[in-house]
Write a structure and sequence with these properties.
Strand order of the largest sheet: 2-1-3-4-5
Distance between the termini: 35 Å
Number of helices: 4
Mean pLDDT: 95
Low-confidence stretches: none
Order of helices and strands: EEHEHEHEH
Largest sheet: 5 strands, parallel
Structural class: alpha/beta
Radius of gyration: 14 Å
């Protein structure tokens, strides 16, 4: 008999120090983010680039998302590093399926409000 259990549905925020927005699961490391992308159905993913000494950078996470095919439905890049943003965007854009929406910047307030209100229901 096959296990047909569906994956949990989440929105995911990868950052090593910023507070996690309401309605999002938090990944404090790149490895944690990649594991959650494998184990869950991710609607919105928001990525930081600089993840601290000895940790995978956002660019390395982006490359593994492409290599593993573990894309969420929508991706935002909230890093303050222009180099990091450009690097992640180029990697993800080159490898993403057509139905994945990729944004160059952080989530607008309206998206944050919508996700927070959905989680409160």
């Amino acid at each position: 008999m096959t296990n047909t259990q569906s994956k949990p549905k989440i929105h995911l925020y990868m950052d090593d120090w910023r507070p996690c927005p309401d309605g999002f699961a938090l990944a404090r490391t790149g490895e944690e983010c990649l594991l959650m992308l494998q184990e869950c159905e991710v609607g919105i993913l928001s990525l930081d680039h600089e993840m601290g000494p000895g940790e995978l950078s956002g660019s390395e996470v982006a490359a593994r998302i492409v290599a593993n095919g573990t894309f969420p439905r929508e991706i935002y890049l909230h890093t303050s590093s222009e180099y990091g943003r450009r690097s992640m965007y180029q990697t993800l854009y080159a490898g993403k399926p057509d139905d994945v929406v990729l944004h160059r910047g952080q989530m607008p307030d309206e998206v944050l409000r919508r996700v927070a209100s959905e989680s409160a229901e």
